[in-house]
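So, could you explain the following?
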Amino acid sequence: MKNKFFVIFKKELKDLITVQTLFPLVLIFVLFYFLGNMMPSLISDDTVTIQSEQTDQSGQTSEVEITVSKNSMIGFIDYDKSELSDYIYVNLPTRGITPIIPKSSNPEEAMTELETYNLNGEEIKIQSLIVIPEGLDAKLRAGEYVSIDAYSSIDSFGLTSMIAGASAQTAIGSINSVLTRELFDLYGGDPSIDINYINYPVYSNDYTYLNSKTEKVNATMVLSYVSSQTMFIPIIIMLILMMASQMIAGSIVNEKTDKTLETLMTAPMNRMSVLLAKVLAAAIYAIIYAVVFSISNNNFMGSMAGGDIYPEGFAATLETFGITFNITTLAIVGVQLFLSVLCGLAISLLIGMMIEDIKSLQAYLIPIIFAVMIPYFLSMFLDINTLPLIAKILVYAIPFTHTYTAFTNIFVQNYTLLIFGAIYQAIFVAILLTVAVRIFNSDKLFTLGQIMKKKPGKKNGSFSIGKWRIG
């Protein structure tokens, strides 16, 4: 009984541990190893050295070099030129914010300048600007609230952009904290002064800068709206690719297993007709699945919105920026989605031709899922265009990446990358389908899986692939 158990156990283990099942595991390990080594450098806080004035205990001022975070920098325009406005500028670094004075005193021109700000010969991007209004000092000393214009720039719609969009609000909070101590010394003994005024003497007028246009709207609200409308797109892509890939690859593998593929190939009909029928059937099913899911998701998001979350005229403001979910936008994204589906189908076709059994098929489909999910997570957290060159090339080499970034490229008017993505996906599909067609029209359709499955020779440990012998 014991020997029989080990015989069965050994047989099952040999069936599971093959080149076909180990290859996906190696690929997954390589992908995670790459991400594990790449992500720390991407999410690390970049720093830069700047010149700063410091005052010692004797009151003497000197310039020293300090290292600050690039993300802590904001533009600072001072129209008041007063004691309190200078006090804000000097004390903001104590709150972790580094104010940078642009050359232009015009907010819109300053935002354009800060997009490619030259700091000690290094080009950096500063996405927030604070404008101190004229009369700030006089109003604060008179016990009046003061509004400060806060500008936020949007260049993508990931999580990092939301953080950058909120940095102007963070700066307003820091200004309140800086002024509280000064106002407490000024009004601390006056019982008529409201404590809320001491804690929050200034409030913000929010402006968003996008596509060289400025509108009086909160940047976080814009980012939240776009994210809410596009957050399910990657899930739709993943589901479509999983369904279509399993169908087309499973169809070929099942026919191989059932020995019906040989009969089908010898039938009096063109092999291309068989291949086209399989691809179209899987694509149509995937499109139906996508349409049903999209309609359901749209109804769900509409019921969640309730119509009262966003202020009146918000949609018109978005149109000024070029953010519209009209037929043209959806058609462009639809084309890239369809190309992504074709990419998945082309890969699945080749996998189906290389696989001889259904157990190995599931293992081989795992890398496709990871190839779908990796650019999704990267695009959700990061602006892919800010990645190092090598990382950017590797990420954009995954054809599904271009579908994830389609909405962002449309809304920030990056049409070059949008067109390049569609062309790259089309070329990727054409190459894989050409290979698949040649295999499908040859005898390799029946022998490729057996060649891939050959085990090392019993005598000398060698194994062969086609006419090549290794070992």
Q: What stands out?
A: The chain is about 60% helix and 15% strand. The radius of gyration is 30 Å. The domain at 68-225 is CATH 3.40.1710.10 (abc type-2 transporter like fold).
